[in-house]
Fold this protein.
Amino acid sequence: MISSKEKNTTIATAAVHAGERDFDQYGSHINPIYQTSTFVFRDVDAGAKAFQGEEDGASHIYSRLGNPTVEKLERAIAELEAYGLPDQNAYTGMAFGSGMAAITTGIIAAARGGHIIAQDALYGCTSQFLDLEVPELGMSRSFVDVSDLFLLEMELKKNPGTKLVYIESIANPTMTVADLPNIAAMAHQHGALLMVDNTFATPYHMQPLKHGADIIAHSTTKYLGGHGSVIGGALVLKSELIEETSLHKFRKNLGGIAAPMDAWLLSNGVKTLPLRMQKHAENGLKVAQFLEMHPAVDQVWYPGLKSHPQYDLANEIMTNGFGGVLSFELKGGFEAGKSLMNSVKLCTLAVSLGTVDTLIQHPASMTHSVMDPELRLEAGITDGMVRLAVGIEDAEDIIHDLEQALEG
Ligand SMILES: Cc1ncc(COP(=O)(O)O)c(C=O)c1O
């Protein structure tokens, strides 16, 4: 079977073959579904050795600890996030039952007992976990606008011994693009790890590991799955960091591993990621340009627009375009946004993103309603902001739908 690691391929080719490194006993072409909770031991010694982690023990024990279907997905995601890195083999993927399971397990393992500096604008549940639950778990946290490197430096100085800096490569829903090389350098200078949620960008548009990030998090529910049929999450990090942070132990005991059927669906999604992202990005730019020119629209946030505050940075660190998500605010504020969301016919009023169809939603009352309202406003998530996850339909059809809804 072709291994993307052995060949000098593009990321599109790597995605098609990612994870498919070995034959199973029947030579299955596609990742087989090992829909089993437990695994049979040849004899007592093999079972005991497996529990001791000895190499000649049984290869699998119990699916909460590891499962062959899940491992293929883990290899695929790690190969894409570490694509092109000289030490690609040093990275390992870990699949979880949701993006939040990946994020919370990663944060607990990497920052336990210490301080976390987090970006002010983050996905609502991540923000809520950091704001309310992290202090109750014996960790401390502070929030900062990481687009201002001076503020980040001040926060790191104010909190010596900070264990973790937590950011999103493209923030949900403000679309702030993180200055990864400088943020990583700054975190490391102060002895902290950098954890980056790369859900919006995906490895097709951004590879934070290349810019110095230590831990990558994903809601695989979104673009990696691609079809809105699975809730899932993943982490990618150096194998030695998994050891240092005891991440396997935390995933085993917190119990958040992905299920085999979900991992199988996600493995299929990963194969078409570059193909889909190309169309999401092409459509994203066209729709962003249409909205920016529309008289009813006050502001559009999309990294591919010259008006975006980090347009130059986005061009430096993003590849193959700028993804499919954008946010905008109408001149008529929340009421105009509400009327638009109630008037679309092709676009679907639903939270989430990364599905093949276009989804529209209102962050302040939906995905980010769990955030502290003050923190939400300070982070730039206004009450009138509308988020659009542009799908892979024909761009003209999406634009036509928005046009009729804006008139209505
Ligand atoms: C950027 C980002 N990270 C994490 C999550 C959480 O992922 P999940 O819903 O798969 O738990 C989301 C969900 O919308 C998200 O948008």
